[in-house]
Amino acid sequence: MPDTRQLMRQELGGGFGRRLRQKRLELGYSVDKLAEMAQLGRAQIVRIERGEGGDAGIATVAMIASGLGVSPGWLAFGAD
Taking burial as the number of CB atoms within 10 A of a residue's CB, which of 29, 30, 53, 80 is the most buried? Predict the structure, then answer.
């Protein structure tokens, strides 16, 4: 049985990645630009967008949300 952290990553993976990519493209940001703005590695952004979770925890979600100018709740779960 998967642990709670693994389930959280899976839950965030799909919708989180789709919303991240959608907003990034709307803003015209490259993966590199977003990674720089969010102070994260490019590979982590790519993994998240692919739905692989990218070891996204609360701090990661908040950093990406700040870089995109959206709320962490919307980015992580589609809700404000």
Answer: 53
Give the model's pLDDT for residue 7: 47
Considering the entire predicted model, what is its pTM? 0.80
DSSP-assigned letter for residue 78: S
CATH code of the domain containing 10: 1.10.260.40
Q: Name the residue range of residue 58's domain.
A: 4-77
Q: From CA 27, how far away is CA 7, in angstroms rounded?
A: 30
37-52: per-residue pLDDT in tens? 999 999 999 999 988 8
Looking at 2-63, which runs of residues are DSSP E strands? none
Task: For tokens 């907003």, name the residue.
Answer: 23
| Token pair 């709320």: residue | 71
